Q: What sequence folds into this?
């Protein structure tokens, strides 16, 4: 029974699903692991400031610190939904320091 | 320099390539993050395996409050003084160390059953570790589960780490976490010394389920964690049998898990050994009828 079903409906094995899920979650967790402690606070304060001008929620702002050799780059990504911003600029505002 | 003479007496130092600086003991932490994956089984097997190879080895239980290494090693009725007693100066090291009855090179250092989790003071542990280094070639630290004080103290002094992982999502994720902690919070990391030498040990592996796509394969776990593989220990009935009787599983010559641990110890000492027990076993007709695990 199972054999015929798998012939017509090829499905990834549960082990393959496990591997994919792990790859995604670990990529995310590793990126946050070396982050300095102030990042969550910075994110919270940015949210408060930006929130005064546009309607945003917590999950729409992402602050990451990337290290490449001698330089580090602090990347702040703020996603803004269409219609929530009353300026003529695009839907996403990005700043790199 | 009595300590140095002691080392010379015990077995073929220098014959094994992976030997560190002569006279300097190597501290190995057995850790995982997740509980129940086989840390204590591995600590017992690895310590016994190193002793069988002629290396004077001590295995320390860092799981304060939940003493269990003594049971797995079969010396629970011989515990008089423990790790915390020695840290507090209530007993000296040689009063607390238990010499294994099966092997001259093997010693067990039991932990305390106190509920005070902060009894493991870093300075005290450091002093005891330095003292152990004078007597032993290998110091195996059996870490508690989690990432709290006990687990951090167990990995802090490590030169090498054995990451015990099951082919299962939560275990792999926790292993990744503990690898990150080794890289940032070990003494080697704090002092900017060469990093802790990290090894993957995959336990409770079931090649038949892997073949069916029901279990992560050894290569998948290796790829995800990207650390070198020390060994694969097959799921085996002999592991429970070993802990039932308080015998490190390497002493069971008929056990697939025991043989896989012996191989892993050999690899740790720098030998090349082919991975066994990673493919589904073909049972012969004869073994199917008269077979044993």
A:
């Amino acid at each position: 029974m199972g054999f015929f079903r798998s012939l017509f409906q090829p499905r990834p094995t549960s082990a393959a699903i496990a591997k994919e899920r792990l790859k995604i979650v670990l990529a995310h967790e590793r990126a946050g692991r070396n982050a300095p402690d102030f990042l969550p606070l910075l994110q919270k304060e940015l949210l408060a400031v930006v929130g005064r001008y546009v309607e945003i929620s917590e999950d729409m702002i992402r602050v990451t610190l990337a290290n490449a050799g001698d330089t580090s780059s602090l990347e702040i990504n703020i996603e803004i939904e269409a219609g929530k911003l009353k300026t003529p600029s695009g839907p996403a505002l990005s700043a790199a320091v | 320099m009595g300590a140095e003479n002691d080392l010379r007496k015990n077995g073929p130092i220098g014959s094994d390539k992976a030997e560190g600086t002569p006279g300097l003991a190597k501290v190995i932490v057995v850790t995982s993050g997740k509980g129940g994956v086989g840390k204590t089984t591995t600590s017992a097997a690895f310590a016994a395996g190193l002793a069988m190879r002629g290396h004077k080895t001590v295995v320390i239980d860092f799981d304060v409050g939940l003493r269990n290494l003594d049971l797995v090693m079969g010396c629970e009725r011989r515990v008089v003084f423990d790790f915390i007693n020695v840290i507090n100066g209530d007993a000296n090291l040689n009063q607390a160390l238990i010499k294994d009855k099966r092997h001259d090179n093997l010693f067990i250092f039991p932990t305390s059953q106190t509920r005070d989790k902060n009894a493991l003071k870093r300075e005290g542990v450091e002093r005891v570790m330095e003292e152990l280094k004078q007597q032993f070639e290998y110091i195996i630290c059996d870490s508690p589960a989690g990432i709290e004080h006990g687990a951090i103290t167990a990995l802090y002094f490590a030169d090498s780490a054995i990451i015990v992982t099951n082919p299962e999502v939560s275990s792999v994720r926790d292993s990744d976490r503990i690898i990150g902690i080794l890289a940032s919070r070990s003494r080697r990391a704090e002092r900017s010394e060469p990093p802790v030498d990290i090894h993957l040990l995959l336990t409770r592996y079931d090649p038949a389920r892997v073949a069916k796509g029901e279990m992560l394969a050894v290569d998948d776990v290796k790829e995800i964690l990207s650390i070198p593989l020390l060994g694969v220990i097959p799921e085996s009935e002999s592991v429970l049998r070993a802990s039932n009787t308080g015998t490190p599983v390497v002493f069971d010559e008929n056990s697939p898990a025991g043989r896989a641990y012996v191989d892993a110890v050999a690899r740790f000492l720098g030998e090349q050994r082919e991975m066994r027990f990673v493919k589904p076993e073909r049972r012969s007709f004869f073994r199917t009828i008269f077979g044993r695990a």
About this structure: Residues 230 and 268 of chain B are 7 Å apart (CA to CA). DSSP finds 14 helices and eight strands in chain B. Residues 169-185 of chain B form the longest helix (17 residues).
